[in-house]
Amino acid sequence: MKDTKKPWSLSEFKLFETLPMEDLEHIDQMAPSTNFTSIPKGTLIQTPEVNSKGLSIVVEGRLRLFKTNADGKQYTVGILGTGGMYGESKSYSFGTNGNYMEAMVDTTICSINQEKFDHFLSMRPELALKLLEELSNRLRDRDEVLERLALSDLRGKVLFFLTKLAKKFGVEENGYQRIEIPLTHQELANMIGATRESVSLILQEFSNEGVIITGRKSIMVQLEMAEERLKLT
């Protein structure tokens, strides 16, 4: 990982959009350019044994949260995109610790000093409520993921993750949602603890049915068809 000097502004993120200008300027002062770090794709930035302290925000890119079982298989429990937050302090936790975390693509993050942000948060209850809302949404998404991983067959797991990725990171293209993450069959298999071969067979089935269109490291999802099939799994 290396520091980047690109002049990002944290005050542009949705979390802070309702704060007055004075507070926005204070937030940007808490995150000077030296706190912005570039992370190459595939870099592991957290393990269950070494957790993140303080608040960190994804400025650009994608981070994957995952766990492993006794056999070493990976199970994705969340994906953080631009504006996604992780870490913890005395005042809050985003429920990301205890997981592995890796960069799915080249990613830029910003770290904010824990003590300074805790003090800032204690003076602004409206921001604390937003953080609680973010945590609530995160926990709801995680519970949904874990339920699908536990109860769905492989076809249902693949369809669930493709639908979720298309909704969160999709761009409309000819009636499909193109997932804006370069995604190989192996990477998708890693998300659900399956083999590449079995996932490739399922993807071929969905392609034949017109639910998805696959390309080199790209997948497009027809959301209406995907959601109808998801109801049956």
Describe it.
By secondary structure, the chain is of the alpha+beta class. It folds into 2 domains: 10-141, Jelly Rolls (Sandwich); 152-231, Arc Repressor Mutant, subunit A (Orthogonal Bundle), CATH 1.10.10. The protein has helices at 21-30, 114-122, 125-151, 154-169, 185-192, 196-208, 223-230, and strands at 2-3, 36-39, 44-46, 54-60, 63-68, 74-80, 85-88, 100-103, 107-112, 170-173, 176-179, 212-215, 218-221. A 5-stranded antiparallel beta sheet has the order 1-2-9-4-7. It has a 4-stranded antiparallel beta sheet with strand order 3-8-5-6. α4 runs antiparallel to α7 (223-230). The protein is elongated and about 55 Å long. Residues 15-138 form the Cyclic nucleotide-binding domain. Pfam families: cNMP_binding, HTH_Crp_2. One of its GO terms (cellular component) is cytosol. It comes from Paenibacillus silvestris.
